[in-house]
Specification:
about 260 residues, alpha/beta, Nucleotidyltransferase, domain 5, five-stranded mixed β-sheet, globular
Length: about 260
Amino acid sequence: MLLTIDIGNTLISIAVYEKEEILYTFETKSDVDKSLDEYVTLFTSFCEFKKIGNKQIKSAIIASVVPLLTKVIEKAIKTVCKTDTLILGPGIKTGLPVLIDHPLELGSDLVAVSVGGISKYGKPLIIVDLGTAIKVIAINKQGAFVGTAFHPGLYVGVDALISRAAQLLSISLTPPKKVIGKNTLDATNSGALYGASEMIKGLVKLFEKELGYETKHLLTGGDALYVKDLLPSFTYDAKLVHIGLKEIFEKNERAKNDDK
């Protein structure tokens, strides 16, 4: 079995692969205040609940944008599963050409999502990844990462609005039946969800204009569920980051074997 772990600013997403199939997935909040022992307990409970023996997990790979958690999770996996972990970063083979000003600045999550998208859907692509931030990613006809655009995520935007407006309450991120809200809840939901979906459509058009051709459109990330029904022309795939991590892990294993 292979563990693929995506450590984001809001959530840690975990998948358990058996050959080509994802058997289990698990999400927990990214919490830098949790101790190593707490994460060991969390992984142990997950394995016990899914009846996964600690010797069944042979390998693991991590993509992380939270450096404080990377080593903690790596040590937790070592403790529970007795296996080493590949950390996605500089020096790791990905097969993804990166054509941006400062390639080392590119987040490992964006690398993994891009590799997963190309692997499953081909190229060219525009991938919209909705998490703490909304990331719009451009993959050109040659399969190279050529750039991205960042926008505040759904919850980041709503939380910022609520924190500065005394009469606004927390919302459910449920699309109202009409775009024109007749009450505070519907008005806030409408702005958050219809506003985000139209922003995404607009950015995709601008991306394709700069690329000079149309692309396939993919939607992924933890918050994509809230807008996928508003973006019917997009293919929704919640597992892109894990698909990419598996591809990268296998590429590095093949390279290691070739060097022997």
